[in-house]
Amino acid sequence: MLTTKSASPHACELFARHFRAEPGWLLSVPGRVNLIGEHIDYHDLPVLPMGIQRSIQIAFRGNETPIIRIESEGYGSRSISIHADENSSGPAGDWSNYVLAATRLAASHWPLRQGIDAAVASDLPPAAGLSSSSALLIGLTLALLTANSITPDFDELMNIFPDGEQFVGTRGGGMDHAAILASRAGSALLVEFAPLAVRPVPIPSDWAFLAAHSLTTAEKSGAMRSQYNSRREAGSAALRKLGLASFRSALESRPAAELAALAGNPSLSDAESRSFLHVIAEAARVREAVTALENQDPVAFGGLLNASHASLRDHLQVSNPALDELVDCAMQAGALGARLTGAGFGGYTIILCAVADQQRICTELVKRFYARRSGFNPEAHLFVAEPSAGVVSG
Ligand code: GLA
Predict the structure, then answer these.
(1) Is the CB of residue 231 less than 8 Å from the CB of residue 318?
(2) What are the residue numbers of the active site?
(3) Quick check: is 17 in a domain?
(4) Could you tell which of 32, 39, 171, 219 is best to mutate to test the pocket of ligand 1, judged by most ligand atoms within 8 Å of the CB?
(5) Over the stretch 73-88, which tens digit does the pLDDT of each residue have?
């Protein structure tokens, strides 16, 4: 789980500069892209994300005091007590809320003896669908636990994280935490819920996934929160009105066509009907995508990515014009499939192509999409997402 400090000079240098000492540990917490299975984890349906090489790094050491003193290059210094009041919070959107949430999470499950000094560095773009907020929350919590000699396993961590996330943004499902914690290098991670189970599915070495930013962002703590929650509620309301116990039992007991027909039930609002259609079809696509991956069939996998995007755009309505245009540009440039990844409303797309084509497709995307926009930073906004290890599976 913990690497030596030489692996990330940046967080360690920041630590040394700020605290005038050497950190004891360095924690590297990957972001994730979701390959397929969008907006269905919170309905306890399987999803297929993967950890990526972009990460949040935390250099830290226990400080034998009840205070967490923390420094980030971009966001400044904060000090917080490990006994911080349950209801205390920083200004809306301030990163001290992550430190508070991590403290609350750790302290409500384990006895904390001391705080930490910590420096945080990141090459994971924020508000872009790559799970930077979950990575930060997980990283801060694990740093605090490590300094207190507490080493929970994957299942214990999965019991606390999805709920803990609501202190800082959306109450999502468990996909992000599972991917950040348990991904394996070279593989996608099939994540199932209730009961929780994860299975790495190897990605063929001649497939490449490009992460391409739409140059539009969606702050989890902002308006996106209510948009996200409304999609979740619409799906659950549809289920209730149709008298179904859960999406999973419905999918297991009825043919797809019969389920799709239920979306036309007049008791459902338009949004409920569209959400229902998205969820049942996306769940089927995850199953088919795992088969396509196992059969090493990139054309089938790419087709499923395109169908997922169309459903997120038309049924769930969580895309935006920049994401749609980027997906179109990728397809015109010769990609095998593309879709928005994460919650949507901005952020990244994930694009499947052959490794042999990745350079040409990047060049085409710059010409067709980025050249007409300002603020494009090639290193941050367009990169090959490498299937990377999670923080506890490393
Ligand atoms: C966010 C949430 C996840 C998931 C996705 C949409 O990233 O944190 O749990 O719901 O949106 O698939």
Answers:
(1) yes
(2) 176
(3) yes
(4) 39
(5) 888 999 999 998 777 7
